[in-house]
Write a structure and sequence with these properties.
243 residues; mainly beta; Pseudouridine synthase; ten-stranded mixed sheet
Length: 243
């Protein structure tokens, strides 16, 4: 596992490149992006550091941190109003079968086209496992999940995997992973939701091919639109690197 690095810092916002295998935030004593950044900023556990959003441990890419309460409030408000635009890349392995137990409004074998479509589901956290499930809208504790999806004109040499472009409009637990898997498009490496393995060893320590590629927000001080791009990790396939 590589260490994080700062992509941009200003107006109380710190954009960090999170490697796979590292939690965004974790209990005391466990390594995380938050703990690493506290060390970089010279702040102990009592010093302020806001975490307005998170990435799953197995996911790489850009995550925003707030070094001041004012920046945290401004970012949180933008997230609430859906003014922050997050863009992800994912390598998926199309299959005719949806993930076990999931159901979706679209055929499992459908691969999105270059023109974006909208995936809309209702998700619920599983109370007994660290995963989510797709449920009916009227189910207790269900929350709507909305994602814009398109397919980038890239595919592996054998044609078995494709590159998808995600813009989530909501932020539910495992939203992109579950929505893709439920449509027969599990993300490579995401064995929790039926994806093919990526590498060997403990699956909990391996990456999945989902990357938080870009984030755009308004600078808390100036209001200027800021866009941060996160370089793709070394384990990302060459064919799936957009121009």
């Amino acid at each position: 596992m590589t260490i994080p690095r700062i992509l941009r810092e200003g107006s109380g916002v710190v954009a960090v490149l999170k490697p796979f295998g590292l939690a965004t935030q974790a209990p005391p004593g466990i390594e995380s992006v938050e703990r690493w950044l506290r060390g970089r900023l010279g702040r102990d556990a009592t010093g302020y550091l806001g975490v307005p959003h998170r990435l799953d441990r197995a996911v790489s890419g850009v995550v925003l941190m707030a070094a001041t309460p004012r920046a945290a409030r401004k970012l949180s408000r933008q997230f609430e109003r859906r003014e922050i635009v997050k863009t992800y890349l994912a390598v998926v392995a199309p299959t005719a079968d949806a993930a076990a137990g999931a159901h979706a409004a679209e055929p499992a074998e459908a691969v999105p086209a270059a023109v974006a479509v909208v995936w809309r589901d209702f998700l619920r956290k599983n109370p007994e496992q660290a995963r989510s499930e797709i449920v009916e809208p009227e189910s207790p504790h269900s929350r709507e999940a909305v994602t814009q999806v398109s397919c980038i004109d890239r595919r592996s040499d054998d044609g078995g995997t494709r590159l998808l472009h995600f813009v989530p409009l909501t932020g539910r637990m495992h939203q992109l992973r579950l929505q893709a898997a439920s449509r027969g498009l599990p993300i490579v490496g995401d064995e929790l939701y039926g994806g093919p393995p990526l590498g060997e060893g403990d699956a909990r320590e391996r990456p999945i091919l989902l990357h938080a590629w870009r984030i755009a927000y308004a600078d808390p001080d100036t209001g200027e639109r800021v866009t941060i791009d996160a370089p793709l990790p070394d384990h990302w396939p060459e064919w799936a690197r957009p121009d």
